[in-house]
Specification:
210 residues, mainly beta, 2 domains, four-stranded antiparallel beta sheet, 15 strands, 30% strand, globular, Glutamic_endopeptidase, Neprosin
Length: 210
């Protein structure tokens, strides 16, 4: 993301529950962009995102894993030659699937780079003032398997080298500690199978301050 005065460019991808957008209460993967002259939209609701894969779509309902968990493994990366921003479904076998891309012409501030990378959880309160659950609805505890969690985030630097988020300063922001929580994860290697960047979420409720 880059913001300059009244301009902002960003691309987001991940998962959300949004009945107004999807028509049901299931979790869906999504993409969202904002570019030149405040243009932008979710998924393919306006011209912009170019779907390439015939099997791996940008926005689909997500099915629980065998243990009832839901996981999303997505990346946003800029192609060094074309400048286009690609959405990729990251596979643990080392072969990612390119979903599609946002052409560089959509943006006037992130044509060559972005100055901020964020990982976030967000909710929107209803007109009654009640805020919905975030994550799986549980506050984070010492047991990292009990709440929603984010594993290490890889960042591609200006030299197009992949660097783990541990090399960068992490700014943590929690808008409401009444209804939601945020905890640092354990800092161990992936080889040990225990590395978690942070855990987050909560039940929501009334007067959450969101």
């Amino acid at each position: 993301m880059i913001a300059v005065r009244d301009k902002v460019n960003f691309i987001q991808t991940g998962w959300m529950v949004n009945p107004a957008l999807f028509g049901d209460g299931r979790p869906w993967s999504f993409g969202l962009w904002k570019g030149v002259n405040r243009t932008g939209c979710y998924n393919t609701r306006c011209p912009g995102f170019i779907q390439v894969s015939r099997t791996d779509l940008l926005s689909i309902p997500l099915s629980p894993l065998p243990k009832g968990e839901i996981g999303v493994y997505l990346s946003i990366e800029q192609d060094k030659k074309t400048g286009n921003w690609w959405a990729t479904d990251v596979k643990y076998n080392g072969h990612g699937m390119h979903i599609g891309y946002w052409p560089k012409e959509l943006f006037d501030l992130i044509s060559t780079n972005a100055n901020m990378v964020g990982v976030t959880g967000a909710v929107q309160a209803s007109p009654s003032g009640k805020s919905p659950p975030m994550g799986n609805g549980y506050l984070p505890t010492k047991n990292e398997m009990e709440s929603a969690r984010v594993r290490d985030v890889d960042i591609i630097d200006s030299n197009f080298k992949v660097i783990g988020s541990r090399k960068y300063k992490l700014e943590k922001i929690l808008d409401s500690d009444k209804c939601y929580g945020l905890r640092d994860g354990r800092k161990k290697s992936f080889d040990e199978g225990t590395y978690v960047l942070f855990t987050y979420g909560g039940p929501g409720g009334d007067s959450c301050g969101i």
